[in-house]
Specification:
By secondary structure, the chain is of the alpha+beta class. It has a domain of 123 residues: Gcn5-related N-acetyltransferase (GNAT) (Aminopeptidase, 3-Layer(aba) Sandwich). Helices cover 31% and strands 38% of the residues. The protein contains five helices and eight strands, in the order ββαααβββαβαββ. The protein has an eight-stranded mixed β-sheet. The chain is globular.
Length: 180
């Protein structure tokens, strides 16, 4: 399957928009889907299948995800992209994750997120990019600081994780503040 791809020095960042995700699920079996999306657990496959069945978009919300592929090994090492994208108001929340600790602390997410932010402001015409992180997530805090995000405040009891409501710290970056 061919993807629209952003290329960096060490990465291929492959676009997984709604049409692409629907096509992946419609024409492939479970094993092929897992391979295409780099899914290694049944839980993650079940989550992706549920998202597909329930729909990736609503009347005012969209998603646009990218899988991060290390060029040298051609391995899917993570993902980065936008959810709760509201085109009418030109804003979206960015999310990102690496699949394994072996890929952390090597600058991969800095390399990928920089291009995703650029894509958001230029191609998606965003005015505001938001990020919500856990209070103890120091690596994400450093990453957001690196790109000039501003801490706006704390959203109390925002996420339910393992039966416990946890706070989120809200960060944002405006197009007028963005420096390539």
């Amino acid at each position: 399957m061919t993807f629209e791809t952003i290329e960096t020095e060490r990465l291929f960042i492959q676009k997984l928009d709604t049409e692409t995700m629907n096509r992946i699920f419609e024409i492939n079996n479970e094993d092929e889907i897992k391979k295409i999306l780099g899914i290694t657990s049944e839980g993650e496959f079940a989550r992706q299948k549920m998202l597909h069945q329930q729909g990736y978009e609503s009347y005012n919300r969209k998603m646009l995800n990218f899988q991060i592929v290390e060029k040298q090994s051609n391995t899917i090492i993570g993902n980065c992209g936008y959810h709760t994208w509201n085109p009418q108001h030109h804003r979206a929340e960015v999310g990102y994750a690496l699949n394994s600790d072996e890929f952390k602390n090597k600058g991969y997410m800095t390399e990928a997120l920089g291009r995703i932010i650029e894509y958001g402001f230029q191609d998606m015409e965003l005015n505001r990019i938001e990020a919500l992180i856990g209070e103890d997530n120091i690596p994400s805090r450093k990453l957001l600081d690196h790109f000039g995000f501003t801490k706006e405040g704390v959203m109390r009891g925002h996420y339910l994780i393992d039966g416990v409501f946890e706070d989120s710290i809200l960060y944002s970056l405006l197009k007028s503040e963005y420096k390539e």
